[in-house]
Amino acid sequence: MGKNKKIIIAGPCAIETKMQFFETIESIYHDIDMIRCGVWKARTSPYSYSGQGEKALEWIQDAQEKYKICCAIEIGTLNHLNLALKYQIRHFWIGARTTGNPFAVEEISQNLKNKNVEIWIKNPIFPDLQLWIGAIERFKKNKTNSIKLIHRGFFLENSKKYRNQPRWDLLKKIQKKYPKIPIICDPSHISGKRTLIKGICEKALKQKVDGLMIEVHQKPNKALSDSQQQLSPKKFKKLLINLGLK
Ligand code: PEP
Ligand code: MN
């Protein structure tokens, strides 16, 4: 990475169909470093769309070969990890709900030891810096090959503007504590709505984050999860241009 180059990660909140997934990649992969795509969605309600599971892993393997770009997925269990490795996926993130679960983090991190994989650790749901640090330390202690962090905002009971409140003060603390670990901002899950994404990106870049992870869907209004916050490929491209990242 050059000095001013930012890591740009984008893709759908969740893979829904092979066509939706491939069409989305087709329209953005030239402009980005990596695809994000949800396979198992940690939904609050058991009745919400929860992803395609193993079927989607096959599509990811095909996509990685066809477009020569890496895809990253969320894992929350050892079973997720083992299945994903079988389909040649090497980039994972720990979702906000899992970061605060020491059993899951310990189990996953122990099984990543000495594997050629990369893990991104999202901040936990609640603004408890020690919980985030605890998860980071587990991966470090268990010798994970490569670590990045993701600021996705924090749950606030009375938050009006944002879905998850950004905490630039906590971001600064974590940057100071781990100066060598790259940190990515996820403006999609912070803002919860399309109109706020650009402002969050600008603030994050001012805070010298190393990259951005943004949800993009071919038809955002029809998305089965997070439809309010996903950008169309056209809007995403415009955003990158406006931010001076393209
Ligand atoms: C996601 O990135 O798809 C996701 C579910 O995010 P979070 O864990 O931040 O809620
Ligand atoms: Mn999402």
Features:
single chain, 246 residues, alpha/beta, TIM Barrel, 8 strands, binds phosphoenolpyruvate, binds manganese (II) ion
Describe the structure.
Helix 1 packs parallel to helix 2 and helix 5 packs parallel to helix 6. An eight-stranded parallel β-barrel has the order 1-2-3-4-5-6-7-8, surrounded by four helices. The radius of gyration is 17 Å and the shape is globular. With 246 residues, the protein is of the alpha/beta class. It is built from ten helices and eight strands. The chain has a single domain (7-242), classed as Aldolase class I (TIM Barrel, Alpha-Beta Barrel). The chain has helices spanning 18-28, 54-67, 78-86, 96-99, 102-110, 129-141, 168-177, 187-191, 197-206, 233-242, and strands spanning 7-11, 34-36, 71-74, 91-94, 118-122, 146-151, 183-185, 211-215. Helices cover 39% and strands 14% of the residues. 42% of the residues are buried.
Can you lay out the helices and strands and say which pair or pack?
Elements: E1 7-11, H1 18-28, E2 34-36, H2 54-67, E3 71-74, H3 78-86, E4 91-94, H4 96-99, H5 102-110, E5 118-122, H6 129-141, E6 146-151, H7 168-177, E7 183-185, H8 187-191, H9 197-206, E8 211-215, H10 233-242
Parallel strand pairs: 1-2, 1-8, 2-3, 3-4, 4-5, 5-6, 6-7, 7-8
The chain binds phosphoenolpyruvate and manganese (II) ion.
Kindly summarize this structure in a few lines:
The chain is α/β, with parallel strands linked by helices and 246 residues long.
Which architecture would the CATH scheme give at its second level?
Alpha-Beta Barrel
Number of domains: 1
- Our count of helices gives 10
The termini sit apart by 15 Å
Q: Mean pLDDT, as a whole number?
A: 96
* Secondary structural class: alpha/beta
Strand order of the largest sheet: 1-2-3-4-5-6-7-8
Radius of gyration over all CA atoms, rounded: 17 Å
Q: Name the CATH homologous superfamily.
A: Aldolase class I
Largest sheet: 8 strands, parallel, barrel
DSSP strand (E) fraction? 5-15%
Label the overall shape: globular
How many β-strands, per DSSP? 8
The level 1 CATH classification is: Alpha Beta
Low-confidence stretches: none
CATH topology group: TIM Barrel
The arrangement of helices and strands along the chain is EHEHEHEHHEHEHEHHEH
Helix content: 25-40%
Ligand list: phosphoenolpyruvate, manganese (II) ion
